[in-house]
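Write out the 3D structure for:
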Amino acid sequence: MKDFETYIFDLDGTLLNSLNDLAMSTNYALRWAGMPERTVEEVRMFVGNGVKLLMERAIPGGLDNPRFDETYAKFREHYLQHNLDTTRPYEGIPEMLNILKQRGKHLAIVSNKFYEATQELAKHFFPETIEVAIGERENIRKKPAPDTVLEALRQLGADKEGAVYIGDSDVDIMTAKNSGLPCLSVLWGFRDKEFLIEHGANNLIEHPLDILNVKFNQ
């Protein structure tokens, strides 16, 4: 058994509890457009595939709604101004990342959150530990395609061998599989244990510090 050398993390629901800020911006945009608001629990199940799909799910009629584009733009405008209002790392996350960094491990974030917000949040909360942060942008396919993970490995100068992917959703399980990496599914995020198991999770993590003790077969 051997320690992993590279740790690639999902962001929302894995490193950061961003649910309330996402819900606030969603409902701000819906109110602005005169549309019915959504509960926090509804937004919890809408997230994971990027904010555009979040708004497709939140807006009545989705992309077919004639006001989709302007409402989505209002969400992005509000979220970029308010994504730090209540968003915080989960308990134990900074300590876990610091220990991994002290051990000389490579650390990256890959997210379906749009690129600017991903970069801002990574620099704000994890400036000393996260080396690479990749979000949604036009020239790279979002998760569960492997592209963002492979780009993170490229930027880190790291190999797949010895790398692990950590996330909180079915999208993350699929992303790890498509990338050819083992997946650690965390139980403190936006999906519960039963949901994760139903979607193929086989390595469940109950607390961030547990990540420090996971090893792989050489």
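The first helix runs from residue 19 to 32.
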